[in-house]
Each structure stands twice: as structure tokens, then as C-alpha cells.
């Protein structure tokens, strides 16, 4: 349309187009321009849905969840109203605190208001992200579902039905990484660790493919984009490390390949001190699984694994491994900011952040 052409942005091709519809401005096409009835992304998603029609529907799984059925346009579920959606968003943000960063709250709030003020576009990838956030909020709120399934599972399955294939998803960049990492978070909270590990691994691989593990990829970006990108990378990294340890599966990437620096202070973002401690604890958790990152600290030349692993080790190797890990944990514990330090000389009054940091510390040990 003329508005998208003037602003040099991609037009959805519908009449009115997505851009003009959201901004409630006239949408005009030039007479000599052939109008597209549907966007390319919309057609690709319909083809992917058609290709998945052979999914099984009769098998029951954990929590009474059935495998995903075919989804047509008549199977969209009803979303919570705007007020409830904002309440669920607050629940999610309070749970994430300042030691994780799965999405940018300010940008999400802006999109949320726009989404509810216009006609719902269920072909937009952001619709999938909204569904996941609402699903996490419902799960953390803990109110039993009327159907007897896990709270938020209906929204989660709706998100899976609209999730593009991996090739299309990769083109969505940061949004795709946010979606997969939040799906992993939902599944982890639902005690589905194996499924969470798979999604966290996909999120990490997409992040690596987008250059987020490389510090050089951050140059030239706006400061707010750098802060969001860096925090998201380390959150996905922490997810993958802890889920690898929880399931006993291999790590996706070695620390030696990562050059991205820790999060820095940035206007509009929480101080990253607590998150940096959380990152260091996740690193140590990963090092208990793979000693190729850590074996130079152990004297024995035949050492292959630090604490856990399939290869045989002598008793002295195992003791040395545990000692080195405990020493690193002790060093990190000394770096916990004073406002989060546990004082056992008086009745403990822990904040959520402090409690989580000490929980991660003792889980790693």
C-alpha cells in the first residue's frame, strides 16, 4: 500500500494491511499495483499446518494432555481480557525477577495494548509469544483448570499449533528465541524436564545461529537492543545448562566458544549484579557435566569428566574434581551482593532474588 511504500516497510498485502489496520489509517493501493490477497508467511504457515494433519489424536500423555490435533481457523481459543492478561503478565515478571530475562517487558506491554485495541491477527508471530506468556502466568497463578488439565496448558497447546516450522521460525530472529525459551520455562515449571531440555536446546542453537554468543555481533546496535540481546542470551544459556544437568544430557555449546560479556548496566533495565551471579552458578553447573572446560584445573592428565559422566575415573580424580567445583562455588558465593547475602545471626528475611540465588548455589553443590 502507499503508506507502507512511503515508510519503506514490508506490507502484508491485505486490504487493509496489517500496518494501517493497527494504526487505524486509510489503506490505499495504487491502481497499477497488483494486490496480494495473503502474505507469504501466512501461506507458509497454512502449508505447514496441512503437512501436520497426520498427528495422532487418541493417545493420552502426562497430566491428561492429548497430542496436538489438526488446527483449522475454527479452533482458536478465547483469550483472557486485557485486564486479566495484564495480571498474568505481572505474575510472570514477578516470577522472573531480576535474575532472568526472557523478553523485554516495556516492548511487550506496548504490543499487548496494541494487540487488544485492534483486530486479533493470529498469523502474527507475536500472537504465539503472547500465548506463551499468558500460559506461564496461568500456570504460576495455580488456579485449577476447569477441564482438569494443567493451568495454562490450553494456551500452550494453542501456541504450539501456531508455531511456524524451524526454517520460518529462524527468520523471526529474537522473537523466535524468546518464544522457545519461554516454552522451555513453561515446561520446566510443569515438571516436564525432557521436553524443556529440547526446547531450551533449540533456543540456544537459534541464539548461536543469530550470533548472540559472539561479542562482536553486538556492535552497532542501540544500547537498549544490546542490553536485551545480552540478557536474553545469558538467560537461554542458564536454562540449557541447568536442564542438561537435570536430565543428564550433553551440553549444547562449550564455554570456550562464548565471547559475549556479562550484562552491563543500562537505562531502563534492572541492575545486572544478581543475574551475573546466577550466570556464574549456571557455568559451574555445566562444568560438573563436561570437564573439557575445566580439566586444566585438575592435575591428573587422564581426567575427562569433572563430576558426572560416562567415562571411568579413579577415586583421586573424582575427589579432585569435587574439590575444584566446591572451591569455585565458594568463590562465587563471596561475590553475592550484600543486599542478597544470607545472615544467619538473625532471623532470615530473604527476598525472592536472594532465595533463588542461594537455591541455585546449593543445587550446584
Automatic annotation (TrEMBL):
Keywords of this entry: Metal-binding, Nucleus, Transcription, Transcription regulation
Cellular component annotations (GO), alphabetically ordered: nucleus
Ranges where the Zn(2)-C6 fungal-type domain occurs: 1-29
Protein source organism: Colletotrichum chlorophyti
Phylogenetic placement of the source organism: Eukaryota, Fungi, Dikarya, Ascomycota, Pezizomycotina
This protein's name: Proline utilization trans-activator 3
Keyword Transmembrane (UniProt): no
Top-level taxonomic group: Eukaryota
Any one Pfam family match given in the protein's UniProt record, by short name: Zn_clus
Gene Ontology MF: a single term: DNA-binding transcription factor activity, RNA polymerase II-specific
Gene Ontology biological process terms, A to Z: DNA-templated transcription; positive regulation of transcription from RNA polymerase II promoter by galactose
PROSITE patterns for this protein: ZN2_CY6_FUNGAL_2 (PS50048)
Statement: the UniProt record of this protein carries the keyword Hydrolase: no
